[in-house]
Amino acid sequence: MDKIKVSLLGATGMVGQKMIKLLADHPYIELVKLSASDSRIGKKYSETVKWIENGSIPEKFRDMKLVSTSPEDNKDVDYVLSALPPEAAEPVELKLVKNGINVISNASPYRLSKDIPLINPEINFEHLRILEGKDTKFVKNPNCTSAIMAMPLVKLLGFDYDRISLVSMQAISGAGFSGLPYMSIDDNIIPYIHGEEEKIPAEISKMYGTVQDGKINGKNIRMSVTSVRVPVKVGHMGVLNMEIKKGVDVEELIKNLNNFSPLKGFNGLYNAPAHPIVVHNEADRPQNAIDTYNGMEVHVGRISYTDRNLRMVILGNNLVRGAAGITILTLELMEQMKL
Amino acid sequence: MDKIKVSLLGATGMVGQKMIKLLADHPYIELVKLSASDSRIGKKYSETVKWIENGSIPEKFRDMKLVSTSPEDNKDVDYVLSALPPEAAEPVELKLVKNGINVISNASPYRLSKDIPLINPEINFEHLRILEGKDTKFVKNPNCTSAIMAMPLVKLLGFDYDRISLVSMQAISGAGFSGLPYMSIDDNIIPYIHGEEEKIPAEISKMYGTVQDGKINGKNIRMSVTSVRVPVKVGHMGVLNMEIKKGVDVEELIKNLNNFSPLKGFNGLYNAPAHPIVVHNEADRPQNAIDTYNGMEVHVGRISYTDRNLRMVILGNNLVRGAAGITILTLELMEQMKL
Amino acid sequence: MDKIKVSLLGATGMVGQKMIKLLADHPYIELVKLSASDSRIGKKYSETVKWIENGSIPEKFRDMKLVSTSPEDNKDVDYVLSALPPEAAEPVELKLVKNGINVISNASPYRLSKDIPLINPEINFEHLRILEGKDTKFVKNPNCTSAIMAMPLVKLLGFDYDRISLVSMQAISGAGFSGLPYMSIDDNIIPYIHGEEEKIPAEISKMYGTVQDGKINGKNIRMSVTSVRVPVKVGHMGVLNMEIKKGVDVEELIKNLNNFSPLKGFNGLYNAPAHPIVVHNEADRPQNAIDTYNGMEVHVGRISYTDRNLRMVILGNNLVRGAAGITILTLELMEQMKL
Amino acid sequence: MDKIKVSLLGATGMVGQKMIKLLADHPYIELVKLSASDSRIGKKYSETVKWIENGSIPEKFRDMKLVSTSPEDNKDVDYVLSALPPEAAEPVELKLVKNGINVISNASPYRLSKDIPLINPEINFEHLRILEGKDTKFVKNPNCTSAIMAMPLVKLLGFDYDRISLVSMQAISGAGFSGLPYMSIDDNIIPYIHGEEEKIPAEISKMYGTVQDGKINGKNIRMSVTSVRVPVKVGHMGVLNMEIKKGVDVEELIKNLNNFSPLKGFNGLYNAPAHPIVVHNEADRPQNAIDTYNGMEVHVGRISYTDRNLRMVILGNNLVRGAAGITILTLELMEQMKL
C-alpha cells in the first residue's frame, strides 16, 4: 500500500515535535513536509527548531527545509496535520480547506462548528462518518483537557446524575513552551486559565453529541469546571465529583472502565492503546511523574461512591492524548474506515 | 502586667520555628522554655535546630538549652504550647494536663473530643467558654487545611445548600520538613493525603458546633473532600463548589466576607488580622506566591454563582493560619477573655 | 532636613518593585515619582504593576500615576534612580543627564566608561569623589553577579595569585520576571548566560581600579568565569578557586572577611549592613533558601586552602546586593559624603 | 550460546530499577533473581517496589519473589550485580566473594583497593585483565560523578597542565530516592555533598592508573573539586577549568573527543554507545533537560582555551553512565574478553 503523505503545520512547537516523534517510524503515514511561520521558511528543521523532546531529532527530518503554510506548498499531500497556535490556525486552515486540501487540526477555531467533527477517537469516531462523500475533509481534535477528561465520562453519563463538578489541575506545557515564565508559576498555583472553563463542557458536549442530517448536536451535560495551573510540566489531572441519586456499583464501574475498548475491531491503529482507560487501585495513583509516559492512556484512580457522590481522579498526557496522539490516531482511523 | 510565660513543645520543627518567630517580640507573651525530643535535651537551641525560617534565629533563643517535655520541666509556665507531631503529642500532652498544666496544642489527638474546644479563633472563640472554671485548660487547634477552609464557610453555611464539594491542593510543608522526598513530589501531583479527607469535614463540623452542657455538638455539614499534594512549599488552596438552590447575591456575599471581623471588640489581639478574610477580584488570584505572606488572612477569589453552583477558591498559609498563628491568637484571646 | 526627592524609572519590574519596598519607609529619601514605559503612563501604579514582592504594594504608591521617563517629567527631583532594562536605559538616561538631571542607574550601558563611577559601595565608594564639583551626577551600579562576587575579593586580591577561576550559578530572577519560560529551565541547568562572562571580570576590574585625573583605570585582574543558569529564583552563588603560591592563613582570612566594615565611619546609611560579608562555618552553607533574606550581606562559606588552592563559595541576593539595595545605598552615601 | 545468569542486589532502589529496565530485553544476559533487604524477602517484586521508572515494571519481573542477599540464595548465578547502598554493600559483597561468587558492584566500599578493578569501561577496560586466572571475580564501578567527569579527561591528561579545577553540580537522584526532602533542596543550592570531593579525584586517579604485578597504581592527578547539590532530578554537570601552559588546539581536541571510541573492536557490547563522548557546539548545551536521555553518552560543551585556561562543561546521566549502565557494560565486556 502506498503510504499516506502528510505535511505538518507548526512543526517547531511542542505539539509539532511530539507529532514528529510519533510519525518518525510510522508504518503507513509518511511525514513529507514541515511548515512553520514565515520567518523560518527555507531553513533546515534542525537549524530553526528548539528541540526539546527526549532524544535527538529523527535523522530524516534534520535537514528537511521548512515550507510555508500556504495551499501551494501543501497541495501534494494527502492530509495536512495542524499543530498551529489558535490565532495563526484560523485563516491558514480555512484557506487550505477552501483549496481542497484535507486538514486534521488541533487548533481551537471551528471546534464547535456543527458540521466539523471534533474527534476524540474512542469516544466518537463514528462522527467521522459525516465526512463520507465530502471532497475535502476538515476534522478537529479537542482541547487537551477536554480530550482527557471526556474519556471516563463514557461510563458515567448514563447515570442519573445531577451535576458534574470538575477541578482540573493543568500542566504548564498546556500553555506552550514559552507560555509561562518560571517566576510566575514555580512554587505557585494560578487559579485561572483563560477560556478553559468554557471550552471543556462545550467540547465534551459535542463529543458526546448525536448526528442528525450531517450535523452534530451536542449532548446536554451539566458540568461546572474550575481550571487551575499547577507547577508540573506534563499531565493534566482532574478531580471529578458527580452527584448521583441511584446507587453506583463501584466494582462494576471499574470493570467497565478497564474493559472499554471500542476500537478493537480495527486493524492498523498504530496509536490506539489496548486499554484507553486504566484504573488504578493504589490510593496514591495516578501520578504525573509515573503515569503520563504511555501517552494515549487516560489514567483513573481514587474512585469512590459515598453519600451519593461519585468521585474519581483522572490524568492524561496533555501533549499525546491531549494533542499529537489523537491527531494521528484520527488519521489512522480515517484510513481504516476508508473515509 | 506580668507577661504570660509559655513553653514550647516541638521547638525545632517547622511549626515550632514559626511560633518562635511570632513570639520573639510579643508584647505580653514570653517564651521561656523550649523543649524537643529526648536526644536534644540539654543542647543549645541553635546547635540542634535546622533553622529554615527566613532570617536568623532570634537572639534570645540561640543559647537557650532545650528541656524535656515532662511536667517537671514545664510546670512553672502559664501555658504549654504544643507543636509536636501527633504520635509524640498524645501521651505527652495528656500527662501535662493530668499534672495540672495548661496546654494549647496543634496536634491531632483529642481534636474531636467533645469537651475539648477546637479553636479557629474568629469562627468559634466562644467555645473557649466551656473552660470557664476549669482548673486546667486543654485547647486544640484544627488541622491546617480545616483551619483555612473553614473560614469563608462562616458566610456560606447559612445558605440552603445541598452539598459542599472541596478539592484541597496542599503544600509540601504540610507534611513536615522531611515529609516528602524531592524525587517523589517534584513535577508531580500525588492525589492522596493519608487521613486528610476525613479530618476536614469532622473538624469543621465541630468548629461550627453548638455548646450544650459543656460539650460541643458538631453541626451537620454535608461535605465531600478530595485532598491532593501539589509541588508548592507553602499555602493550601481549595476549590469549593456548593450546590445552592436559592439564588445567591454574589456582591452581597463578597461584602459579607470582606467585612467579617468578629474579634474587633477585643484589644490586644496581636495576631488577629483586621480582615481575616480577603476577597480578590482579579481573575487570577489568590496565588500562593503572592498571597501567603500575611499569614493569618484567608484569601478568597474566583467567586461565581452559575446554574445554582457557588464556586470559590480559598487560600491560606498552612504554617500560620493553619498552625502557629492560631495557637498564639488563641492564647491571646484566652488572656483577653480572662479565661 | 529636607528629604531627598527621587523618581524611579522602571517602577513595575522586579528591581523597581524591590526599590519601592526599600524606599517605602526610608527616613530621608522620598520616592515621589514612578515612571515606566509609554503604555503605562497615566495609569495608577496598582493598576498596571504585576506586583510580586511579598506583602501588598505600600499604600502611598498604590494610586500614584505613572509619568514618562522624559526630562520634563523628572526634572523636579533631586535624583532619578533607574531600574530600566538595558536597551531602554541607554537613550533615556543619557537624555536625563544631558538635561542636568542626576541619575543613579542599574542598567548596563556606560558601566565601563572611565569617567562614570561604577559603585559597589563598600568596595569603592571613594570613586564617587570624581563627581565632586560636577553639576550633574551620573553613577552606575554593577551587574548583579559582579556586585556579589566582588565583595570577598577585597581580602583576596592582595595575595600573590596566579588566576581566579569563578563558576557562577545564577538565579532565574537575574533574567527578569519573564526572562525564562518554566519549560526551559525547570529541572535543568543552562550552561550559558549571554554576555555575562565578559561583564564580570571587566566590572570587577573597574570597581578595584584607581582614579587618575578624574578617570578610573581598571585593576589588572586575571579571572576566568563560567556562568550557568540554575533553577532557583533568587540568589547568585559562585564557587571561586584561586591559585595562590604563598601560604594563606585561613583563620586570619575568615577574621578579615567578617570584620570588613569600611562604611562604619558614616552615619545614616540606612541600607548598609553592619557586616557586609558574613562567613559561615557550617559545611553546608551558605544556601539560597536560608541566606538570601538579609539582602545586602554577601555570604561566604566552604573556605579552604589546599595544595595552594584557595576555595570559597559566595552567595548574595541578586535583587538587593545585586541591584536595588546598592542603588539606594549609593544615594545614601552620596548624601553623607555631601556630593 | 547460553545466557549469562545474573542476580541483582538492591533491586528496588533507583539504580536497581534502572538495571531491571536495561536488562529486561538483553540478548545474552538474563536477570534471574532479585534480592533486597530482609523485610522484602518472599514478596513479589511488584508488591514491594515503589516503581518510578517511566513505563510499567517489565512483565517478567512483576511476580518474581525477592530472595535474600546471602551466598546461598545467589550461588547458582554467573554474576551478582550489586546496586546496594554502601553500608549494606560492604559485608554482603565480601561474603559473596569469599563464597566464590562473582560480583560486579556500584557500591563504594573497596573501590580504592589496588587489586580490585574500578571499571569505567571505555577508560580502563584493560584493568579487567588483572582478573585473568582468578577463580572469583570482584569488580567495582566508580561513583556516579567520577564516572562521568573522567570521560573527557582521556584527551586532557596528556596536556602539560598545572591543575584541574572542577565544580560539579549534582542531581538529587544521586542521593537516592529519599535522599533529600523537597523542603531542603527546592529553590536552593546546597554547596556540600558529604564525601564527594575526596572520592572524585581518588577514583579518577585509579581509573587512569597503571597495572603492576596485578595491582593498580593510581595516576598522579592534580585536581581540586567542589561539589554542590542543585535542584535537578537527573544529570551531573561539571565545569572544568584546567591551566595548560602550552597552546591547545581546540578544533583538534573537539575532533579527538568526538572520535573517541576505544571499544569499537568488540562485538556484542549492547550498552556501549557508538560515541561515548558527544561534543556540542551550541553555546547553551549540554543541558540536563535535553541531553541526559541517551544515558551512556557523556556530553561536553562550551570548550574554550583562553589565556592558558582550558574550560569545558561536562554532563552525564548519573543513573546510567554513573551507575546501572556501566555495570552492565562491564559485564558485557568481561564476556567478550572471555574473562
TrEMBL record, chains A, B, C, D:
The active site is at C144, H236. One of its GO terms (biological process) is methionine biosynthetic process. The keyword NADP applies. Residues 5-131 form the Semialdehyde dehydrogenase NAD-binding domain. It holds the Pfam family Semialdhyde_dhC. The keyword NADP applies. Keywords: NADP, Oxidoreductase. One of its GO terms (molecular function) is protein dimerization activity. Belongs to the aspartate-semialdehyde dehydrogenase family. This is Semialdehyde dehydrogenase NAD-binding domain-containing protein. It comes from Ferroplasma acidarmanus Fer1. The lineage of its organism: Archaea, Methanobacteriati, Thermoplasmatota, Thermoplasmata, Thermoplasmatales.
